[in-house]
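Fold it.
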Amino acid sequence: MKKNIDIAQSLSVIKNVADTASWFGEHAHRWPIAALPMAYAMACVEIVSKNSEKAGAIYRQIIEAWGKPGIDAIYKEMISEVPDSEQEEWKQMLKYPETVYNPDADKPFTDFEEMVKDHDFINDLFKDEDDIDNISQEEERGFEESARLFLLMFEFILVGFNRESDVEKGKYRVVPTEKAPWLILAIIYRTGFEYRNITSERLNRIYKLRKIGKKTYDFEKILTEEPMSRMHRRMVAYGKKANLKLKNDRIFMNAARHWYQCRVVYSSINKFCDVQSKKGILLDPKNVQKEIRHCDQAVGYQGRIYMEKAD
C-alpha cells in the first residue's frame, strides 16, 4: 500500500506542462485490431484541440482541471487501490511486451470499450440528495471538481467535434455518450497525461532503453520495422501470429485531418474536395470517405442523425 501511495505522490509533483508536439511520429507500429479506434480517436483529439480556437481553450481548461485538489485525491485513491499483483503484471508486460499478445491481444481493448459503453457518464455526474447529505466536505469537493472535469470534456466534444452552424442550432452529430467510448477515453488519457507532463517524448525516453539480464534493448526500435535483431524478429513473429496490424503513424493523423475538414469545417466531403481542387490538390471523395470512416467510428459520428441539446 505504501509503495502505491509513494508512486502517486511522486507523480503528483510533476510540473504541469502541456505537450504541444504530436503524439504520432513517423514509425510503423503493430496494433491489436481492437486498439485501432483508440489511435484514431487520439489523433482526432489532437487535431481538434490544435485547430479549433474555441475547443482548444476548453481543452486547456480540462488540463488545468486535473490539478484541482479533489481530483488529485481521487487519483491517489485509485492508484492506492491497484493490487500489487496487477502492478507486477504490468512490469512483466514492459519487460516482455510480446506476452501481451497471448492469448488474445484484443481482449484488454474490447474490455475497455465495453466498460465505457456500460457507463452512463452524464447521469453519474448527479447523485441522489440522500447520497450528497451523507458525504464529507472533502468528498463533496471531489465530487464537484470531478463533475466540472467531465462537463468540460463533454463541452470539448460538443464544441470541437461538431459544425459551428449545427452547434448554434443545438444539434449535434458527435455526443459524449456510450456511442463514443473511444473518444471519451482518448480525452481522459490525453489531457491527464498532459497535465502530468507525460508527453510522447517523455514516454519514449522512459521506455526507450530496457535492461533485461545483461543486455540493454531499445524498445522504440524493437517495436518498429527498423532493426533486424533476434528480439525484433521474435516480436514481429508474435505480432503476426496475434494478427496485429502494421500501421504507420501518418495514417492516423492524415485521416484525422481529413475528418476534421469534412465533418467540422466544411459542409460535406465533396465540399472539402472541391476546395482542395482549387488549390491544385486532387482528392477522390470516395477515397476520402473510406479514409475518414475509421474516425467516424472512433468518435461516434452519427451521420444524418441529429441529437437535440438537452435543456
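Residues 118 and 178 are 7 Å apart (CA to CA).
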